[in-house]
Amino acid sequence: MNNTDFLRHRGPITCAAQIPNSNKIISSGYDSAVALFDTVSHEVTLLGYHQHLVNRVTVNNKGSYAVSASSDYNLYVWDLTTQKLAMVLKGHDDDVEDFVFINDELGASVSRDWRIIIWDLTNGTIKRIILGHEKDVLSISYLDGKLYTSGDDMTLRVWDVQTGEELAKIGPFETETDTCAIDTIHNRIILGCDDGVIRVFDINNNQLVTEIAGHNSAIKKVAVSPKNGDILSAAYDQQILIWDHNNFTKKQILASHSALWERSFNWTNDGRQIVAGTFDGTVLVWDALTGQCINELGNDSENSGHACFNDVVSQNSEQIVLVSDDGYVRVGELTEEKAIWQHKVLTDATRVLMNAVTFCPSKKQIITGAHNQNLYLFDQQQDLKQKLCIELNEGPVNCIRTSQLANHQGEIFVACYSGTLAHLSANGDILNKIPAHQNAIKALALHPTKPIGVSCCAEGGLLSWDYDGNILKEYMGHIAIIDDIDIDPTGRFIASAGRDFTLKIHGLDDGVLYHNIHLGRRSPKSLCFVSPDVVIVTNYWGELLRVALTDGSIIRQTVATNGISSISKHGKHYAVSSYDGAVYLVEQQQLTVLNSLRSMTQQVEAPAFV
Model's pTM, two decimal places? Predict the structure, then answer.
């Protein structure tokens, strides 16, 4: 392997953490990589790759070992002295989200399989499995023989390491609790919630000390300064704030950076600096005292625009439009005979993550949605000239669709993280904001002939509504996050796929669950109703699944080297976009790849696994 090829992550960085007693920051990313960034020499070293994206990396107090938690369901133990992979920990059945060192011999991990596992780090065996959470577990901390965990079941729980006994259950709250941290100086538990509130508890009696209404959107990371106990909170309102440990007043606002990822933040070991990753693969460093961003590691302008594609839409039988984590909107031509890029622009000339895209044929405009809570309208006939920016202020935009009905032509419907369904005119005027869901709306679809839509959310809810904002019907839904939804071409059925690994088919009008098909233990991501009898589902492992509803049979085909983020009808075939930096043209019978268009190759030569 030639490490000179690895100049930064080729995709979003999920976590950045300083290695004690060194100038190095260890990072993890959507490119499946774990890497080291030197803050002095700016040298970047690739340690190695997981088999799927990496969600978190944690370093022990000595700086001798790190553990990375991955969506390949495994944890890797890295020897930082030799910079080699020392051990693989196998035992989870779904994405591993976080890890904490208990001491040099023990560690604990949490996963979307709802379990906590305590590991013997001397030999890689499982010491104990702890059950009790009722949904995905996303965060874990440790202090004095106790584990503290939080996640999608809206609780904070305390566990005894020796026995596995649940010592306390705090909550449930009204929203998800994605992140928790321990203030060892003042014996406090810090909890970050999706309602934007930081909740502080006394670690001795689990009683609420204070609530800080710090953000107007979901908090994705809290962290405590090892220097004095100051609290850092990072949220989807684009605010990164420091709170005073004495009176809990706002102490500092970190300088903004359009590409930063809220979940990736950590303090340095001396509490003087804060580090984080970006959606574009670089590492940022702030001065905690001044709030100024003082460094961006891996910012190689010659190699900017490492595209992990999040969404694709077909303009016609030849042209496609894609949006990606690096902030670019790209137009390309993709047919059986041709695969070329045509245009590429940055939204507002910044690197803000783009989640969603759609094309309105009647208005000849491209509409994109961003992590900064904005919609952007582009003129398709003027080489992607930006026409308008619309501030929705409803959290990141997850999905956009436009109506082509005669009386609603070009009207825009937007799925927002806040749970709000935004309804806009074709010119971008906000007509209505519908509080459709209590949680993030992941996707929506519009009926082909009626002014009706359907939407799904992160808590598993599924419902239909009319264009006036009236809720028509609630469906059985899923027991986990629903990632995508579609209406069949006849308008009779709804297809939904969720992280409970199932594809469900409901009748739109009667609400009857007609099919409930298990897709295997790999999380689905997007889907498309080909006909009333056939659905194509994509997953986070680069697979396409053609599901025949008549008998439940499934044809599987691995297409990409990372997750397939989106699927769109494209002429007589389908375009599927991937986090691996490519979009593939696929025929729908055997899911054969007919052609592809690539913006990047995500991984450099990878070292062998141990």
Answer: 0.92
